[in-house]
Design a protein that fits this description.
By secondary structure, this protein is an all-alpha fold. The chain has a single domain (3-160), classed as Up-down Bundle (Ferritin), CATH 1.20.1260.10. It is built from six helices and no strands. The longest helix has 35 residues, at 126-160. The termini are far apart.
């Protein structure tokens, strides 16, 4: 991958991360308690991803090789698995905005996972390749988490629907 292709890939990654920040931040404003905390935590994670990509982007734009292996930062972070209690799942499933946020998040995480895998295949150096692979694995964890949320909240969503015309 030459520099113009790498820069374009990094810009796509930046946009994807910002899309995720937007969805999670909005969902957090529509929730309370542990559900709001869950979405705020996801927004903060995506902000870190955005900032890491921005560092790579700026350094690549200046013709520099990234000054350190950011992948080690990604690897060092623990992915917290939210304890999905029935109450937590019910609070998500009963709120249409949050159900929509979960659906959107699932798609965003799936897209990010594939994007980072493809970017790793074309990375010009081992550090960047490792970075993209770590981000792909991180996003895969998020994707699986949101798939589970979709499945686990479905019954709560159906329970509160009245299925009346608009």
């Amino acid at each position: 991958m030459d520099n113009p292709d790498l820069l374009e890939a990094l810009k796509k990654g930046l946009k994807g991360e910002l899309d995720s920040v937007t969805v999670y931040t909005e969902a957090a404003t529509r929730a309370t308690g542990e559900v709001a905390a869950f979405f705020k935590e996801r927004a903060e994670e995506e902000k870190r991803h955005y900032n890491w990509l921005l560092t790579y982007y700026k350094e690549t734009l200046q013709g520099k090789v990234p000054r350190y292996n950011i992948a080690s930062d990604v690897y060092a972070m623990d992915q917290k698995s939210e304890i999905m209690t029935p109450q937590f799942l019910k609070r998500l499933g009963e709120n249409q905005h949050l159900v929509t946020a979960i659906s959107t998040a699932t798609l965003l995480e799936f897209t990010a996972m594939g994007f980072y895998r493809a970017a790793a295949d074309g990375a010009p150096n081992e550090a960047l390749r490792d970075f993209f692979l770590k981000l792909s694995a991180w996003e895969e964890g998020h994707y699986n988490e949101f798939l589970r949320l979709q499945d686990e909240t479905a019954q709560y969503w159906f329970d509160v629907q009245r299925f009346e015309p608009f």
